[in-house]
Amino acid sequence: MTDFTYAVDADGVAIITWDVPGKSMNVMSLEGFRELDTHIDTALADDAVKGVIITSAKKDFAGGMDLNVLAKMKADAGDEPARGLFDGVMMMHGVLRKIERAGMDPKTLKGGKPIAAALPGTAVGIGLELPLACHRIFAANNPKARIGLPEIKVGIFPGGGGTTRLVRKLGAMGASPYLLEGKLVEPAKAKAAGLIDEVADDPVAAAKDWVLNAKDADLVKPWDQKGYKMPGGAPYHPAGFMTFLGANAMVNGKTQGVYPAAKALLSAVYEGALVPFDTALKIEARWFTNIMMNPSSAAMIRSLFLNKEALEKGAVRPRDVPDQSVKKVGILGAGMMGAGIAYVSAMAGIEVVLIDAAQDAAERGKAYSEGLLDKAISRKKSTEEKKAEVLGRITPTTDYAALEGCDLIVEAVFEDPKVKAEVTARTEAVVGADCIFATNTSTLPISELAKASKRPEQFIGIHFFSPVDKMLLVEIIKGKETGDRAVAKALDYVRQIRKTPIVVNDARFFYANRCIIPYINEGVRMVAEGVEPALIENAAKLVGMPLGPLQLVDETSIDLGVKIAKATKAAMGDAYPDDAVDEVLFWMYDQGRLGRKSKSGFYAYDEKGKRIGLWEGLAAQYPVAEDQPDVTEVQHRLLFAQVLEAVRALEDGVLMDIREGDVGAILGWGFAPWSGGPLSWLDMIGAAKAVELCDALTEAYGARFTTPKLLREMAEKGETFYTRFAPERKAA
Ligand code: NAD
C-alpha cells in the first residue's frame, strides 16, 4: 500500500501525490511519513529535478494525523512510552525540516530546490503542518475547504512543527486564534491571515509556475535568515511581553487551568520564542510528548475525536437495516423545539411539514428559521438564495393531511401525554404504514407514549437539546417495543442533520437529564446548607463545568425545575430524596424569581437580561454558614452527583455503550470535557479511589452517594470501564 506516489513531469518538476488507498480523506501515518521522506530524498538527489510539488489526488489535501498512530508510538516503546513518542515526533520534525531546507547549503542558504504545496481542498492538522514546512502554499479557490490546526479541540496541540512555524510566521498574537482556539478558515481568509500564500483556480499549475521561477532567496524561511525577529516581538520585547502576559491571563480565564494542552501550548510557544528554530522544535516535541502522556489528553482524544466520530459513522446502528435517510419530515408543534428541529432539517435538505394548532403559530415556527438565516446572511455565512431554498422546504400548516408522504414524524407538542396521544393518532391516520414516529419528550416514558400508537415498533424517542441549532447531541431512546428500523431511521436522520447521536434505553429522564438534574440539585442543596453560592459556582467552573449549577438552573428556568420536581415526587412517592432541594426551588418560584427569562433568579440581571452577579438577597433566606467546605469537597459533590448517575445508567442498562456515556455527557451537558466524560474520569482516578470518595461522601451527606455495586466490584478486581466494557471494535 502506498500513500504517496512520485512522478517527474517533462519540465523536471517532481509531483508527490498524497492518496491514501481506501479512504475518502488523507490521514498521515508513520508509514506515510517514511514514504514521503523517501520521495523527498529521491527528488533532492536527482539532478534532473528542478523542484517539487506536494499535492493530493483527493478532493481535499488531508484531514490530519491518524491519532491512533500516536497511541501506537507510545505502545510500541514498551516501558518507555514517552521516549517512543518523542523519538517518533522528532523523526517527523526531521522529515519536515528536510523539506524546509530542501538541500540548501546551511551557510550560504543557496542551492536548495523549491518545494511547494498545492492544496485542492481542506488541509487541517498535519495537513497544514506539512505545507507550512514547504516554501510556498497554494490553495484551490474552494470556499468549502477548511484550513487550520484544530488539535486543541481534542486536547492536544499542533506537534508537527505547526506551533513553532505558525508563531514565527504570524507572531504569537496573530497565531493565537489558530493555535489556542483551533480556528479553521476558508482559503481566501487563510491567505488574508497569512496562513497560506496563494489562492488559485488551479493550485498545481500555479505551484508549478512558481517552482520553475523560484530564486534561492524565495526558499529561505524568515526564521532561517540572519537577524530574524518574531512578528509582534519575542517575550522580552516590550510588545511581546504584553502579548504573552495577556495570553496567559486569557488562557487561564477561558480554561480555568483545567486544560493541560492549552498550558503546554503556551509553554512551547513562550520557551520556543527564546531560542533558535531547531531548538524550538525540540521544545515543541517535549511539550507535545508531555501532553500525549497526560491522561486527560488521551481521554479527550478518545471521546471527542475517535468515539464521537465512531458514533457519527453509525457504530451502534443496527447493521442489517438498509439506508433510512429521511426525505420528508413532519414536525408536530412549532414552538421552541419544533421550530428549531424544522430549521436543522430544512438546512439538511429535508422537506419539512411544520404543524401547529393555529396557522399563525405554525408561521411563527417557520419565521424562526428566517431569523436564523437572516443573522447568518448578516454575518456573511449564508446568502439570499440559500435562505430562499431552505425556507422553500418548510410548509407551515394546521392541516394534518399535509403529512401524507412523510417518512419520519418528530412530535414536539406540549409535554402532556393526552395531547401527545391525540396527535399520534391523528398523524397515523394520514401517514403511510412505513412512517417512523418520534417524540421529542424530555420527561415522559417512551414506552408509555407508544401505547397511543398502532405501530409501537415504529415509535421512538428523538430527544433534542435546546437550542436545537447549536446543541451537538441528540439522544435516541428505545421504548420497550421499538424496532431496529426505527433506531436506524433515527440514526440516519441525526447523521443527515450532522449531529452526534447516542442510543439509550427508556428510563426516567433517559440519560442526559438523569445526570444533569442531580448536578443542579446538589448545587441548590448546598445553598440550603449555607454554602457560599460563589463557592458553589466557582468550584464547578474550576473543575471544568461550563456553567455552575445555579447558573444552569437560571438558564433552564426555575419553573421548569419546580415542574419536574413535582412530577418526580408524584411518581416516586415516599422514596423521593430531594425535599431539601425543593424547599429552595419552590421558595424562589414563590418569589417570582424564575431564572434568566424573568431577569431574576439565583443571579441578578440588568434590564437587558445580562447577568450582573449572584443575587445578594438569597442570603436573607438562606444565610451563609460560618464554616465553609473546602473547594475540593464541593467539587467532589458536584462531580459525583453526575458520575454516579452515569454508572447507575450503565448498571440499569439505560446506557448500552460506555462511549455513548462519555461522548453524550460532554456534548449534551458539557460535563468537564478535559476528563473525557464521567466514565473516563472514574477510570482516571481509579475505581478504588472513587469508592473511597463515594463512601466518605455517603457518610457525610447521605445515601444519594451510595457506591454502586458495579463500581465496588470493579475496585475489587482492579478494573477500568474501558477495559471491562471495551466497545467491540467495528469498522465504522
Ligand atoms: P412549546 O410550548 O414552545 O411548543 C409546543 C408547541 O406545540 C406550541 O407551539 C403549541 O401551540 C403546539 N401544540 C400544542 N398542542 C398541539 C396540537 N394538538 N397540535 C399541534 N400543535 C400543538 O414547547 P417546547 O419547549 O418546544 O417543547 C416541546 C416538546 O419538546 C415537549 O415535549 C418538551 O418536553 C420537549 N423538549 C423541550 C426542551 C426544551 O428545552 N424546551 C428540550 C427537549 C425536549
TrEMBL record:
The keyword Oxidoreductase applies. This is 3-hydroxyacyl-CoA dehydrogenase NAD-binding domain-containing protein. Residues 328-506 form the 3-hydroxyacyl-CoA dehydrogenase NAD binding domain. Residues 510-605 form the 3-hydroxyacyl-CoA dehydrogenase C-terminal domain. Pathway: Lipid metabolism; fatty acid beta-oxidation. InterPro entries: 3-OHacyl-CoA_DH_NAD-bd (IPR006176), 3HC_DH_C (IPR006108), 6-PGluconate_DH-like_C_sf (IPR008927), ClpP/crotonase-like_dom_sf (IPR029045), Enoyl-CoA_hydra/iso (IPR001753), FA_oxidation_alpha_subunit (IPR050136), NAD(P)-bd_dom_sf (IPR036291). SUPFAM superfamilies: 6-phosphogluconate dehydrogenase C-terminal domain-like, ClpP/crotonase, NAD(P)-binding Rossmann-fold domains. The keyword Oxidoreductase applies. In the central section; belongs to the 3-hydroxyacyl-CoA dehydrogenase family. It catalyses: a (3S)-3-hydroxyacyl-CoA + NAD(+) = a 3-oxoacyl-CoA + NADH + H(+). Signal peptide: none annotated. Keywords: Fatty acid metabolism, Lipid degradation, Lipid metabolism, Lyase, Multifunctional enzyme, NAD, Oxidoreductase. Transmembrane segments: none annotated. It comes from the Bacteria.
